[in-house]
Write a structure and sequence with these properties.
CATH class of one domain: Mainly Beta
GO molecular function, one term: structural constituent of ribosome
Largest sheet: 3 strands, antiparallel
Cofactor: Zn(2+)
Number of helices: 1
Helix content: under 10%
InterPro entries: Ribosomal_eS27 (IPR000592), Ribosomal_eS27_Zn-bd_dom_sf (IPR023407), Ribosomal_zn-bd (IPR011332)
Strand order of the largest sheet: 2-1-6
Structural class: mainly beta
Protein name: 40S ribosomal protein S27
Keywords: Metal-binding, Ribonucleoprotein, Ribosomal protein, Zinc, Zinc-finger
Length: 83
């Protein structure tokens, strides 16, 4: 284990593991994602840490279920997250 640690240039893995407030540049852990419904192929924007059940606007199928942290996509969903 090296005694010298470079605090100005941490590795990307180390930066991702650290708390969001203790990073070199503060950044949130959450993001918005576009979820495509498998039934009607409409795209809905969903927050990654959604606290309620998100339904499709077109066919009212459940797109994601809330958990304690990040929302879990239901089977067959396709998502692309963006900032």
């Amino acid at each position: 284990m090296p005694l010298a640690k470079d605090l100005l240039h941490p590795s990307p893995e180390e930066e991702k593991r650290s708390h969001k407030k203790k990073r070199l540049v503060q950044s949130p852990n959450s993001y918005f994602m576009d979820v495509k419904c498998p039934g009607c192929y409409k795209i809905t924007t969903v927050f990654s840490h959604a606290q309620t059940v998100v339904l499709c606007v077109g066919c009212s199928t459940v797109l994601c279920q809330p958990t304690g942290g990040k929302a879990r996509l239901t089977e067959g969903q396709w998502s692309q997250h963006f900032v």
